[in-house]
Amino acid sequence: MSGVRGFCPMGCGSTLILGSGGGVTCGYLDCPRPEAPSELLAIAETEHVVHFYETNFAILHPLRERLDIVDYEGLEDCPLHQYLHDLDGPPIQPGRYRVIDEGAHWAYVRWPA
User: Fold this and answer.
1) Local structure of residue 71 (DSSP, 8 states)
2) Do 7 and 16 touch, CB atoms closer than 8 A?
3) What are phi and psi of 95, to 5 degrees?
4) CA distances (Å), 85 to each of 7, 76, 80, in order?
5) How wide is the angle at C-alpha 102 spanned by C-alphas 94 and 67, nearest 5°?
6) DSSP 3-state assignment of 17?
7) What global pTM score does this model have?
8) Structural domain spans, the chain
9) What is the pLDDT of residue 113?
10) Is it true that the peptide bond before 79 is cis, omega within 30 degrees of 0?
11) Residue 64 above 90 pLDDT?
């Protein structure tokens, strides 16, 4: 096993290692979820996932969008977040959707499809 740069998403600190199976894991013995780094890296979704409610919404931003976030500032600058915030209500029937930027408009696909 070898050390991996980065931090355990469970808050254990700089404890990441490359496990014998090749996955990134936390080497801290008391980590509550040592496989969390591998689980996060295995997420294949690259688009926004939005849960629309009757009067508001919740966005799961793709991991790539979090790369430039500093001190939790900036996710509100996401074009999708700004667009949805400015609407009077949900643009589609309540539910969970994968939202894809198609340039001129947003496409909504039921999630999971």
Assistant:
1) T
2) yes
3) 150, -175
4) 32, 9, 8
5) 85
6) strand
7) 0.77
8) 2-41, 48-110
9) 61
10) no
11) no
